[in-house]
Specification:
Layout lengths: L2 H10 L17 H21 L24
Length: 74
């Protein structure tokens, strides 16, 4: 399944609650880029550390997809 197909399927299964969607190609300074990559890495680590087996009482399914990569100048 492609990433786009996966995102479409996830959108159809979305429940109420906070969420964010971002699709961007931006020009930013190296320090900003480093900070963003670090924050997303920290968020991923928090989620993985908090993950529990499916249907554990007090939990609900969530979905996260992130792909951050520097682009070549054109």
């Amino acid at each position: 399944m492609s990433t786009v197909d996966e995102l479409r399927a996830t959108a159809h299964a979305q429940a109420d609650g906070p969420g964010v969607t971002t699709d961007a190609e931006l020009w930013v300074d190296p320090e900003t880029w480093r900070r963003v990559v670090q924050h997303i890495g920290q968020a991923s680590a928090i989620l993985h550390a908090a993950a529990r087996p499916p249907r554990t009482p007090g939990t609900r399914p969530e979905s996260v997809t992130a792909a951050l990569c520097p682009l070549r100048r054109s």
